[in-house]
Amino acid sequence: MSLNAKPAAANSTSMPAPTAHRLSRREFQSLALAGATALALPAASARALPAAEEAGSPGWIDAHVHVWTPDTDRYPISSNFKVSDMQPPSFTPEQLFAHCKPQGVDRIVLIQMSFYEFDNNYMLDTMAAHPGTFSGVGIVDSKAADVAAKIKTLASKGVRGLRIHPKPGEAAEWIRDEGMATLWKTARENGVAVCPLINPSDLPHVDAMCAKFPGTTVVVDHFARIGMTGEIDPDQLSALCRLARFPDAHVKTSAFYALGKKEPPYVDLLPMIRRLADTFGPDRLMWASDCPYQVQGEHTYAASIALIRDHADFLSSGDKQALLRNTAEKVFFA
Ligand SMILES: [Zn+2]
Fold this sequence. Notes:
Helix content: 25-40%
Strand content: 5-15%
CATH architecture: Alpha-Beta Barrel
Bound molecules: zinc ion
Largest sheet: 5 strands, parallel
CATH class: Alpha Beta
Shape: globular
Low-confidence stretches: 1-13, 17-47, 52-56
Strand order of the largest sheet: 1-2-3-4-5
Number of domains: 1
CATH topology: TIM Barrel
Structural class: alpha/beta
Distance between the termini: 36 Å
Number of helices: 10
Radius of gyration: 18 Å
């Protein structure tokens, strides 16, 4: 898919395909435990954490995966899409587990797939069928009169984030948009994160919303797609780093297949990750695969997690535990 793909394109909730709060007591205890575990690790583990179990802790968390089923009778897709847009034709939890479990990933944040538009039922049913395994990021129509009620209903079913994905030019209108104001406020009141899928040019608009709605947890997808053109633009990276002054802003280090050289082992992305770790701190970064797009062609699940686990030598073992589990646990599973 081309880099200029329309937002309504088939895999638009994701990156274009490579070719083509406060701390609760539980959260605090979890983080404190993670810190203690990190201290107990032998020094050699600082550079390699081959499996989550070696840290004597729960498995890793993948903060961004899409699932869908070929059963379009039970789960109809939006009229904006055709069945042939569903590529791969199927990506079910079982297909995901075949990739993630061998890497020690046992919890996953599901991101509502664009094929289903505002119908979050397949994601919700998947979450309900695997208790404790999945959190969810849903999509609501911010222009609907009942957007606040919809968010509360989703939150009651375990949804912990809302994806916002502006059409070209739309992000500039967010600051004046009543529906978006309701979305950001209701998200904050219900412990739900706002998750922008944006291009780098939209960063000033996310920045303005963070300033207008302090306390709303924000998780920017895929480095704000910096590097999608092949180059890591330093000005764009600076714009992303400026969000670090908002304590509730987070960044997903994810979708490696689509950024920079777009070639495993993706080590050309490490300087960007290092700058973000220095600016935000590891406890506001979370790794994610963006499956199924990360498991196409030469790209593999193992290569994605390996970039953080095995190649990011500037991260301590505790830092890696933050990126690979604790940050996503705090935002999406607490
Ligand atoms: Zn995605």
